[in-house]
Amino acid sequence: MSNGLQITILVLIPSVFLVIYFGRKIISRLKNEVEETSRALREKSKLATHLQIKYKNIINMDQEVLKRKKLAIQYNKRILELKEDFEKKKDVYQKLQRTILEIEDNIEMNSFGLYKPHYDFETSEEYKIEMSNIRTKQKEMIKDGVAISCSTEWTLEGSKKEGAKMTKRNMKLMIRAFNNECDSAVLKVKWNNASQLENRIIKSYEIINELGKPNKITIQDKYLKLKLAELRLTRELQQKIFDEKEEQKRIKAEMREEQKAIREFENMQKKAEKEEAQYQDALDKARAELQTAHGEEAKIFEEKIKRLEEQLNEAHSNKERAISRAQQTKSGHVYVISNLGSFGNEVFKIGMTRRLDPLDRVKELGDASVPFSFDIHAMIFSENAPKLEADLHREFDEKRVNKVNFRKEFFNITLKEIEQKVKNLHGEIEFTKLAEAREYRETINLLQVSKK
Known about the structure:
Helix 11 (385-395) crosses helix 12. The chain is α+β, with helices and mostly antiparallel strands. The strands form two sheets. A four-stranded antiparallel sheet has the order 5-3-4-6. The chain has a two-stranded antiparallel ribbon with strand order 1-2. 16% of the residues are buried. It is built from 13 helices and six strands. It is 73% helix and 7% strand. Residues 342-425 form the Bacteriophage T5 Orf172 DNA-binding domain. Pfam families: MUG113, SNIPE.
């Protein structure tokens, strides 16, 4: 190695060490700066994250508003769809409700044996005659061998005679079984089970004929119809007998009412005649005494005579009125009354009485059979009270509370409707609009006080 190279190396080595030394210093300082910068960045990042979290709602407000607007549009659209769907389903629901009510009504009617009459005879005797005719026809069908028939001529062990005996025996058993079922139904029939028993007879007819099918034996349809007719006649005969009894009760009630009215007229006439005779005697005496009286005494007798003449005229008028009312068999009062506590609102009784004091009749109606007294809304005098009552009943026939027993004269109507009909049929009458219902209202108040 030359001296020049050695010198160069010796010169460079310190320089290299210096470079390395200062390089390390610079690297260390840069490293510290990097770490410091990284730490600052981390702090800044944390701060930024914190601020982002803290002010997130503000930062995203526009986006949130836009998002909410879109949701609002979607919700409004959905609400409209739901409303339309609701209206459709509401309509379906209401239709179903009406259907359910109709079905429930039918079920209730069936459970109470709703029965549509097949005959329209005037009296129970006519029903009995028809019943006898029906039973005679049944016997004739059996006697003539047409109630039940066999479509095949059977042989038994090669014998037609034995086959005929077998067929006759089977037919006898079938008709007897069917008759027993029908007789049982007729014995059990009542106002509320006729429809069910009709179905029972038809079912028995079908079952027994099904049993006779292998042997080609059939109970005839005409015989079934006669049995059904017997059942229906039995049921309707019961109803007619009931109606006739109710009609007899009505007539007897009218007769009792009429007798009470006649007694009142007779008593009033007797009382008026007695008063008339007393006043006449007193008047005759006063006139006789006036003949001998003078001055002030004469004036006293003149005033007494005048007073007695007025009383005599009144007694005479009362007697004539009693005689007139007794002779006018159709004159009387039609009353409109209600009983809020017993029957509820807008239920009125429209009845008639010929009593001199019609209030007596109303008091009788409010006896122990109902918890509260009746309130009077109108008392209408008529020369033909039965006709006015019948006309009003006919006008409100569809609104009867009891649609079976017409003796129950209660109607589910408004007072305004009654007032209008009375005006049309009779003329202007003053009506008491509000029912006092004193006992009922006091009872309600007592109940409310007791609950406190």
